[in-house]
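#help-structures
NK: newbie question, is this the right format to request a structure? protein is Oxidoreductase
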Amino acid sequence: MTIRVTHTHGENIAVTAGGTEILRYVYRPDPDPFESRKPYAHPVRTLSGRTVTGYRPNDHRWHKGLQMTASHLSGQNFWGGNCYVHGQGYLRLPERVGSMRHDGFADFTVEDDRLAFTENLTWIENGGEEWAREVRGLTVHSVDEEAGSWALDWSIRLTNTRAEPLVFGSPTTAGREMAGYTGLQWRGPRDFTGGTVFAPGTDADAGKLMGTQGPWLAVTTEHDDVDGHSTLVFAHAPENLDEASPVHESHWFVRSEPFPTVAFSWAFFEEFELPPGESFAYRYRLVVADGAWDRDRVGTHLEGLAW
């Protein structure tokens, strides 16, 4: 299926397939610094037009579609909102909330059924000091009308530009049990609340999958308002889970209740340090599909998508 790309310079990039806008990547930051100003993808939709991302929900205004985050980073919060402080709970500490600055695009390529671009960003702590340089890649591909699905690949390469190590953590590494959220995060709309979460090789649900590891995880739901289901698949590139890889090991942060969210957490249980001048890199994939896919269908579909 042919895609159409519309770039509103200084604001966003929109991708349309078959008359449906399936992705809008917003790089003009929202105005409230407390929400950690940074780019995000919303709305994300299935080919039939079902919206599968949430934006500024009333429980967490800083949850915005699909976004790169770092909840605990050397005392700063690049997730947005309240900061977890052990023994005191969540506190409103606006002086700890950092931001990600869009510095421009490179390698912007549009083909009949594929969009690929590279974005340069700078991570800035609340006082204005530049802490890290990010090279981010987004690719829309595999738009398949027959399967009712399409795929988004999201990569990050982050380099420490400070004179001291960057320390990555999460609320769990700060003392809150099983709340190790950080990294690339998806927030679903309200009709994903109570949705079915599953992963390969296990019958575990969202509660039991929290903090586990695996190559992929899927969420499926029946929508409000319209008749129909949608399925989202979150998948690691093979090197993310390679024991010989230099990247820090990842675990799933996943909830179906009280609100739907998934994050590829790179610091769920343990902090890790990024030395000055050093980099780390991850690649992720999101498959957006119409219908209630099961474990076999997800597995077969992922096997057919080359990295």
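mod (FA): yep, format's fine, and the tokens are attached above. The chain has one domain: 3-304.
NK: thank you!
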